[in-house]
Write the structure tokens for this entry.
Amino acid sequence: MDTRSHNPEESLEALLNWKLGNSDAEFKDEEFLNGIEEHVKEGNIRLSEVLQEISV
Amino acid sequence: MEESSKGSGDENFRTRAQYRKKLLTKVYHLMVDDWPEEDRGSVQLNSQLVTAVSESYFKDLDRKKEFHGIKYADAHKRAGYMAKWIMRYRPVQITSDQCSVRALLANEHFAILMALKFIKVSPGKVSVHLYKNLLYTMRYRHLDGNALALAFYLLERAARADGLI
């Protein structure tokens, strides 16, 4: 157990300034479009497979 | 086109929204071009609604970025917020009253395709079972952007997992 004393102002500041640091890079259209045909084709295959499962 | 809110004004916002609309339109056409003709003929992309999706997405995400002091949104936030707005506006419109389930699920599928591309997860890596659950979630669960972002974050982590996620 952490028994150190805490400065409440510092604690609050730490909480308010808490960032996950997951921030991503700048979005670029060309990166998004890279491989998009293959991506959509694979998605359509998955959709067809799901449709086979849920067809009555 | 970058997603930065730097220098954001009406013009910057409109430009970003127009570029994102172009992406959405391209993905839509790739999606339906691969469909059987009868399904392709049962749906149509409504340009006005795609604009609404794109503009709402940026307004929503810009507000979040400003509040949290974020420069660039994470991929999973882009995924979650885009899926949210596609499901709210449903830009793929049904043009027939005798269409297939594929056409009826067009918006759900479209939202998932976009979201998975944002998080760089190939649909081929998603099991049929999980894909079915995603479709169902999009269809019947009215989730907000944060909940969807969390779902796509977990999916992104799981897809790259090599040990602990």
Summary: Chain A is about 60% helix and 0% strand. The mean pLDDT of chain A is 87.
